[in-house]
Amino acid sequence: MAVATLACAGDVMINRQDERTMLRHVAQIFRAADLTYCNQEGPICEPGDKHAGKAGATVAHLRSTAGTAAALADAGVDVVSLPNNHTLDYGVSGLHQTIKALYEAGIAYGGAGDDLAAARKPVILDVKGLRVALLSYTSVCVPAFAATASSPGVAMVKIKTTYEVNLRLFQQPGSPIYISTSGEPEDVAMVVDDIAAAKASADIVLVAWHWGISERWGKLADYQKTLARVAIDAGASAILGHHAHMLAGVEFYRGCPIFYCLGNFAFDADHHYFRRESMIALCDLSREGVSKVRVVPLMINDEHEPVPVPMKGAGQKVGWFLEYLSEGMNTNFVYHDDCIELRPQK
Length: 346
What we know:
Oligomer: single chain
Distance between the termini: 25 Å
């Protein structure tokens, strides 16, 4: 039976003079895997005009410097997802520079393109006799970033948010409001159709999703759980989530792992809500699905670089934190000398 090892990590934005230094501590892990994935947060481009749909926004406009794609390839990265809330920070030109840089570095990409059909197209990779498909989406970005039938952008799954007043507010000042979120039916149907189409030509379908809430919120939006299950019911074997810049829980649903957020990973920026705990998730892929899920715990150093940490020290603390975030998610944690194995509860 053909078995391939997948290594996956979270958000990457490299902006430094020597881009190759960012992943120097984890490159050995990436290169040892048969397939390595991460999320490329924002464009790989030169400074330029900002996207008109975001130019007046107070949030940051991010970009990775020109050598990033080559640095990712040198470290062993094979495929990246592109759709997120910074993809078009520097407009269509920034997107095109990104695609060109990745192509020249030999890195596959998905989730963005010159129209919606291109953005929805799965990446198909042949890995040790397996055909692995990656579909990439974002639910976090300004609407102007969304690709259409005739314009460039990202594969966006729009989310509807409703707020309801907690009636205890009238007797208990400061009571929280009720928030509910759900995917727009047309976009959810798109995801289901995309997975079914990818499954018809691949042995394994992975879904990468930029979603959730940052600002150290530490909780999942309810649409994340709902749509993760929808994707797995449609045929996905694993969900690779990111955006929150901190770890989120890992859940098993129908035996398939849902990484709600792989954490802040290799990000050349400082922010008070970024957390330093991170991880590389390793999984075995076969025609039967995903198995032998394990986590290599990391800490982000003062230079923003991900560094593996020993299990008898900081690694155990990262594991405990992830275990706390995974409470109620049908996941058992088994601690080994070099990693943490995650198993579905029986």
